[in-house]
Amino acid sequence: MSCGLMLAAVLMLSDPAVAEAAAQPPVAADAPVSVAHEPLFADLVTRSGSLKAVVDGWIASDAAQAEGFLTGAAFTGFKAQAAELAARDLQGHLVLKERGTDNDLKCILRGISEDMPKKVAAVESAAGAAERKVALEELAYLLNDNVEVITSPPKPAV
């Protein structure tokens, strides 16, 4: 086998991410650790993602504009799940607070737990179709934010 063919085979079989990872500086021992793998926080991600998918479906299909939507089983069930998610977000905040962490996630989770009921109430109190759609979009954004703040890699304190 010629050297050129051997080199081509090695390059095809190599993973460029390995070389890129090897070029990165080593992680400091005291670097912040992601909590996304912990059961409570993984559950928050799963619940938020599921609820966001429901809201996205309502937005895409205009289901929230149907008469009786707010009193129907779909919305009342969603409302209960959103309230439970908000309570779990607050629990996540309290867990991080108890650990003595001084990071953004702790504060963001508390904010999300406070905002979730307000966003659901905004959907309920929307005066018309356009206002309800905006309220649903804001709710979807909050649910997405809940996923992203937990799953994004933590940043070291500066």
Textual characterization of the structure:
20% of the residues are buried. Helix content is 72%, strand content 0%. It is built from 6 helices and no strands. The longest helix has 27 residues. Helix 4 runs antiparallel to helix 5 and helix 5 runs antiparallel to helix 6. The chain has 158 residues and is mainly α.
Ordered list of secondary-structure elements with their pairings:
Layout: H1 3-13, H2 16-23, H3 39-61, H4 73-99, H5 104-125, H6 129-151
Helix pairs in contact: 3-4, 3-6, 4-5, 5-6
Relevant terms:
158 residues, 72% helix, single chain
Number of strands: 0
Strand content: under 5%
Question: Which assembly state applies to the chains in this document?
Answer: single chain
> What is the residue-mean pLDDT, rounded to a whole number?
85
* Radius of gyration, CA atoms, in whole angstroms: 22 Å
**Main sheet record:** none
Distance between the termini: 53 Å
Order of helices and strands: HHHHHH
Q: State the helicity in percent bands.
A: over 70%
Quickly give the structural class: mainly alpha
The count of helical stretches stands at 6
Identify low-pLDDT runs. 17-24
Backbone shape: elongated
